[in-house]
Amino acid sequence: MPVKPVVNFNKCQGCPDCINKCHSHVLALRKITPQEITSLSLIGKQKAKKYPQKAYVVHPKNCTCCVSCEMVCKKGAIHITELQ
Ligand code: SF4
Ligand code: SF4
Predict the structure, then answer these.
(1) Strand, helix or coil for residue 6
(2) How far apart are the two ends of the chain, measured CA to CA in Å?
(3) Which candidate, 7, 24, 46, 55, has a CA 20 to 30 Å from the CA of 40?
(4) Which ligand sits nearest to residue 17's alpha carbon?
(5) Does the Cβ of 16 fall within 6 Å of ligand 1?
(6) pTM of the full structure
(7) Ligand in nearest proximity to the CA of 19
(8) What is the pLDDT of residue 49?
(9) Which one of 9, 10, 18, 70 would you pick to mutate in the ligand 1 pocket, going by the greatest count of ligand atoms within 8 A of its CB?
(10) For 30-56, what is the mean pLDDT?
């Protein structure tokens, strides 16, 4: 079953442990856009001021489902889900 990671930007602090762990280059660090910030929770919006860099899924089809990114994230911000 094809899978991909999904990042919760309300929790992600752009540390960037998951990006360093992923050998398939699925993830990349980018600055969250003002439009994306509008969809965050109140706490997420406050966090985005301090942590504007987030882990983005840039090559979802490269994901091998090794789950390393999910295991390394101390914030519980990344989960593997079925690729739609
Ligand atoms: S998803 Fe987790 S491990 Fe990845 S950058 Fe965000 S906080 Fe760090
Ligand atoms: S599950 Fe593995 S291959 Fe997929 S994004 Fe996470 S670290 Fe990369």
Answers:
(1) strand
(2) 10
(3) 24
(4) 1
(5) yes
(6) 0.94
(7) 1
(8) 97
(9) 18
(10) 98
